[in-house]
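FAQ: What does the model actually see?

It sees only this:
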Amino acid sequence: MSVPRVVGAGLVAAIVAVALGACGGGGSSSTSSTVATSDRAQILAVAKRYTSAFLDGDYATACSLMTAQARQQMTQAAAAAKLGGGTCAGIMQAAAGTVPSDEKGALRGLKLSIVSLAGDHAVVRTTTAGGQSDTTAVQRTGGIWRVDANL
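And it is asked to produce this:
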């Protein structure tokens, strides 16, 4: 599922599932396995940061952890769903208002795993305690990992 096709409450799931973003690129390393480990750690750390920012109402931070393309897709999807909000942070705030508090609590317990990592692209799986899962594309731009799109 891609963000532009999501409407209503589904946009909320996409916003939360698109869970990765900005953590500086790894420092220099002498081995590719060290670089891959560093990238993996950064991706998972950012996933947690993005999800926490959204759930804590820090929408500006959550938006800063997304690629420009992901923000544009979310804005287009929100307009199509007549969700309102205008800005990335405003859309997230409007979307968060549609999530029941018990579901927000469940989202805090998301399990994150990296499905694939190749160069500047990764795919992360988010899984709820109930076993529902989704995947999210992540892209490194300018040395920074950012949420790119929901697959």
